[in-house]
């Protein structure tokens, strides 16, 4: 193989690896961002938890809007199923296994966490909660 072909192949492999993040998941850059934020606000932060993320997803809260007491109010109890907005519009599955582009765009993720956390919790989600939630969805 000519040196230019080897170099071209190497560039393609390197670009693909960088685009997917260090763990091989395209969500890793967003998780890294939330981990950095979590460490900045909580020196005891030791990593994200799928178990805490599932708890956040399933818990019914009384601090948000009454018609959205939990994530499951719109997204169903199964993250692999299509959800529905209060207006009747379909919501793609939350599970990364069925929707691999979920949690890959920071601006889009922040937009939806902002809306949904305020509706369900009555406040912004913390960086740890966001990371936990994504970590849980990566297991689905």
What does this 3D model show about the protein?
The chain has one domain: Cytochrome Bc1 Complex, Chain D, domain 2, CATH 1.10.760.10. The N and C termini lie far apart (42 Å). It contains 6 helices and 2 strands. The protein has a two-stranded antiparallel sheet with strand order 1-2. The chain has helices at 3-20, 28-41, 50-58, 72-75, 106-121, 127-138; strands at residues 83-84, 90-91. The radius of gyration is 18 Å and the shape is globular. By secondary structure, it is an all-alpha fold.
Task: Pick out its properties.
2 strands; mainly alpha; 140 residues; two-stranded antiparallel ribbon; Cytochrome Bc1 Complex, Chain D, domain 2; disordered N terminus; globular
CATH class: Mainly Alpha
List how many beta strands DSSP finds: 2
Examine the coordinates and then state which fold CATH places here, giving the name of the CATH topology.
Cytochrome Bc1 Complex, Chain D, domain 2
**Most strands sheet:** 2 strands, antiparallel
Radius of gyration: 18 Å
Unreliable runs, pLDDT <50, ≥5 residues? 3-23
Q: What topology, given as strand order, has the largest sheet?
A: 1-2
Question: Given the helix and strand composition, which structural class is it?
Answer: mainly alpha
């Amino acid at each position: 193989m000519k040196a230019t072909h080897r170099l071209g192949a190497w560039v393609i492999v390197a670009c693909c690896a960088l685009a997917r993040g260090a763990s091989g998941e395209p969500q890793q850059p967003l998780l890294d961002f939330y981990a950095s934020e979590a460490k900045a606000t909580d020196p005891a932060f030791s990593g994200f938890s799928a178990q805490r993320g599932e708890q956040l997803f399933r818990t019914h809260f009384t601090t948000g809007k009454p018609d959205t007491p939990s994530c499951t109010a719109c997204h169903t109890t199964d993250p692999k199923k299509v959800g529905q907005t209060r207006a009747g519009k379909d919501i793609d599955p939350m599970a990364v296994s069925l929707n691999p582009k979920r949690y890959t765009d920071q601006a889009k993720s922040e937009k939806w966490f902002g809306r949904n956390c305020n509706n369900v919790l009555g406040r912004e989600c913390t960086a740890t909660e966001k990371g936990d939630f994504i970590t849980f969805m990566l297991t689905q």
